[in-house]
Amino acid sequence: MLTYPNIDPILISLGPLEIRWYSLAYILGVTLPFLIFKKAYRHSLKMRQDDILNYISYLIIGVILGGRLGYVLFYDFVEFLKQPYLIFAIWQGGMSYHGGAIGSILSTILFAKRYKRSVLGMLDLLAIGSTIGIFLGRIANFINGELFGRVTTSVFGMVFPMGGPLPRHPSQLYESFMEGLLLFLILWAVRKYWAPRPGILGSLYLVLYGCFRFVLEFFREPDAHLGFIIHVFSLGQLLCAIEIMIGLYLCWLLRKRPT
After folding, report:
1. Does residue 259 have a pLDDT over 60?
2. What is the pLDDT of residues 105-163, one digit of tens each?
3. What angle do CA 230, 232, 235 make, to 5 degrees?
4. d(C-alpha 211, C-alpha 57), whole Å
5. What's the rounded Cα separation, in Å, for the pair 228 and 236?
6. Phi, psi values for residue 151, rounded to 5°
7. From CA 27, how far away is CA 35, in angstroms rounded?
8. What gap in Å lies between CA 72 and CA 85, rounded to an integer?
9. Pairwise CA distance, residues 225 & 26, whole Å
10. Are 179 and 216 a contacting pair, CB within 8 Å?
11. Which residue has the higher pLDDT, 15 or 166?
12. Distance CA 52, CA 58 (A)
């Protein structure tokens, strides 16, 4: 059994001001992709510095609104019907990846249409760039000791402070590696060596992320207030199944599209 490192979730504390690892993960997750793929944004999409800053603001709004709306609608809908104001209670926590993904996609489409940029080209870069945010975000979840895995006898098991006395899978690290680092490397290689037509990269992201997350959900503890939705499948797996089907359909649609 491994030992949980008990890293302080607060990176820096200056009086009332606290900078948390989770906040830093969000900030870097949004900004690093633009630094890494600066050349693509400037040359392929003809975006100047002001355009990039405007797009970042679109993304931030899309991720936050989408993530919160997604959590309330997907994971806490009954409580939302009782207390609709909970949708604004972001201080209570609760963000959904799938909601955030929808929000970032819609905000990207809105930006691309308003500023007359390639919608598919921007979605492709959004796809590969989002893996960086996922990688950092899951590590931040691990530091916070949240979203831990199921009870296990595996040598990788560890006792989480909020997870009871039994060792659990560090599923946050599994997700960080597969949904973040591994997916980034796959998409980067496809983009570099295959040079697929616009839109394929984004569609492939939907398929691969959905597959990775679907498998890793078997190691992750389901939400306590939801449990399993259908037999041994969680709500996250159902949403991933939909994501996979959408990605496959888009791949098929784009393959048929004339170049």
Report:
1. no
2. 999 999 999 999 999 999 999 999 999 999 999 999 999 999 999 999 999 999 999 99
3. 55
4. 30
5. 10
6. -60, 140
7. 13
8. 11
9. 26
10. yes
11. 166
12. 10
Q: Report the distance separating Cα 43 and Cα 203, nearest Å.
A: 23
Q: Average pLDDT for residues 53-70, to the nearest whole number?
A: 91
DSSP letters for 183-198 = HHHHHHHIIIII-PPT
* CB-based burial label for 148 (10 Å; 0-12, 13-18, 19+): buried
Q: Give the pLDDT band (50/70/90) at residue 71.
A: confident
Q: How far is it, in rounded angstroms, from Cα 85 to Cα 109? A: 28
**pLDDT recorded at residue 258:** 63
For residue 91, count CB atoms less than 10 angstroms from its CB and return exposed for 0-12, middle for 13-18, buried for 19 or more.
exposed
Neighbouring residues of 204: CB distance < 8 A, sequence distance ≥ 6 = 127, 187, 190, 196, 247, 251
Consecutive H or E run containing 12? strand 10-14
Q: Quick one: pLDDT band at residue 89, thresholds 50, 70, 90?
A: low
Find the DSSP H helices in 71-153: 77-82, 97-114, 119-144
Give the span between the Cα atoms of 41 and 209, in whole angstroms.
Answer: 23
Nearest CA to 222 out of 233, 209, 238, 211 is that of: 233
Q: Are 188 and 203 in contact (CB under 8 A)?
A: no
User: What is the distance between the alpha carbons of residues 259 and 34, in angstroms, rounded to a whole number?
Assistant: 27
Quote the pTM value.
0.91
Q: Give residue 92's pLDDT.
A: 60
In this structure, what DSSP letter does residue 75 have? I
